[in-house]
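Supplementary Methods, section 5.1.

A reviewer requested that the exact input to the structure prediction be made available. We therefore reproduce it here, unchanged from the version used in the analyses.
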Amino acid sequence: MSGALQHDHEESAGDEGGARNVDEEGLRSEAQESVANDDQEAEHYQTEGDEQPLIVVVDDPRFNLATRMRQRTSIRMVVFFRKIFGKLAVGSGYVILVVVALPVGISSGGWSFFRFDENEKTFSRSFWDDFLNFNFSNPGSLYWCKGGNGIWLTILDFFLPLWWSSLQIFCFFLYSRFACKSTWTVPSNSSKLIRSDWFASNMYLLILGVVVPYCSFTMAGIGYLILLAYFATYNMVCTICNLLFIIILNKHKFVTRYVFYISVCMICAYIESDIVAVFYFMLNSEGSLTNLKLTALRTVAIGLTLTLSLSSSMHIIRKLTKPGESLFEGLGEK
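The structure derived from this sequence is encoded token-by-token as follows.
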């Protein structure tokens, strides 16, 4: 009987211990849940205070569609205007390249190796005189040339031949340097170029371009100094531009349409300048026996002009037929 009582006491004690353990686990779980709830409430309050917007945005599909349509329209307009301006820029560049390559000589403002008209007594009508209705013999036409219009007429009628050839060579260099960058690779043999007869002729003509105007204007005065500077600068610029054109053309490995176009225009400019040079040389040859030194210099200048025009034209034709070869390899040495 005592054993039964002891067994009942142990069972009751075990039941009390299990109940106590269950109560402790329940209290522990309740405490953990309360802590977790407190953390969630704190995070909720922090989120509401920091990140939650004050205005609730309603996700309207029609509003979003209109916004996307406006964005697409603006992007299309930007792309459209970008294409338009790009095409205008490229088109303007090609128009400039085509215009500056036109074969115009000193008769209309442009190319000539040498100016033989510095002693001309009567001024000949040029393209700008006809375009602007300007005539020295008509006093009524001189009224238009007063003030700023006279400055523009001076620039067009006198300085257009001065900067035309340099503008042409500059545009041709830009085209070769950027548009034909991958094919502008033919090496130039500078040593053979410097020792060639063609280069020596250019240097002789460059010197005569200053000497002949200096010997032509014997009278003193600011007007004669301006004419001397004008003709000397023109002769030097055209001779240097002719040299640079052949050097730039020589580096082209392939003949593009523009290279062919400007080459043909240059040959036509050489022919026109030669005709004009011979015309003025014969026109100003009156009384040549009175100044034998000037006559000899002008004769040498006309001979070099015709020789350089012919040799430069032959170099251009050779480059068009054999673009892969360098022009300076076959030049005769001095």
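The CA atoms of residues 11 and 17 lie 10 Å apart. These observations are discussed further in the main text.
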